[in-house]
User: What shape does this take?
Amino acid sequence: MINQEFRKMIEGKSVIREQSEYATARGREIGYENVFDFSLGNPSVPCPPEYTQAVVDLHLREDPMVLHGYSPSQSLPSTRAAVAESLNRRFGMDYRMEHIFMTSGATGAIAHALRCVTCPGEQVLTFAPYFGEYGPYVAGTGAELKVVPADTESFQINFDAFEKAMNPKVAAVLLNTPNNPSGVVYSTDTIRRLARVLTEKQREYGHDIFLVSDEPYREIVFEGTDAPFVSAFYDNSLCCYSFSKSLSLPGERIGYVAVNPRCTDADLMAVIFSQISRKTGHNCPSSSVQLAVERVLDKTSDLSVYERNRDLIYDELVKLGFRVVRPGGTFYIFPQALEEDDVAFCEKAKKYDLIFVPGSAFGCPGYFRMAYCIGTEKVLRSFPVLERFVREEYGAGR
Assistant: This one.
């Protein structure tokens, strides 16, 4: 018989994917250029030419047995060493190769990190709004995900609710900054306060509490934004990263876990990760992609379009009367819907071929997410449609 747990998951299909699939189908009917699809966080700029050149050069010059061979169970030593050196230089850390484990994107990084630091029956806390796929990530470990309600005034951490949620069963806190879906970057003050609370609770409960920091948008931070490197503030921290956004390589599935060298059992964790891979069938990302990324660690795609789109969309939303916190990074914005029912709001928007994702998918009902990783020209063309939508459906706007 088919595994019923996974069969049941079909009923809980990702709302983001459902909205994206609707937009694609609608695009076949009327032309995708006429669908204002703000659903999916798929990078809209090409990878940097240096990455393309690295791939070409490797395929022309590298020994094919190295390029296409199996990598070691803990991933390629040269790539791990290069990632450690880059993080040390950029953020004043002291990682060694032994603290880096290459993964299939941030998803693989989080899956390995959570399996390493939790046991069945324990709890993982995360902060709303949060990426909805955290649910299955945590469930796969046998632990239980608990969600701390949002501070909707700033979308920084709601510390009153967080401290109430803390209890001896908490083994890990799963953090996402810059945040999907709000676009907010947790400030240095926020991270310092979080570290203080976790340190105090470790002492009170008599066991480790690990901070798993999900950071695929770390390079998409806008001018003037305070964007601390989370692991510099708390010893028991694991940084989960993906090159999907910084290098526009989502299809290559490449990222890493970086274990803080002062973390409990830091020198053992990458070895444990390789054993987790045996159980999950992860078995290391592509050798050729690891080698290519190794050559461009300090490069990014031209990410400037995201800040330009942020400015345009934020100003437009404010003019139309939306309540919205200005994003400090990512390519998302998270306004309050014009009615309490965010799902109904997004369904009404579909009539105007505006595709949004309801905030309830991120543990924050009453809001909606716009992913503005699309061309600026299309952003501008969406504004008259957005204005007509809010005017006709809600009597709002200019």
User: Anything to note?
Assistant: The CA atoms of residues 285 and 342 lie 38 Å apart. DSSP finds 14 helices and twelve strands in the chain. Residues 49-294 form a domain with the Aspartate Aminotransferase; domain 2 fold (CATH 3.40.640.10).
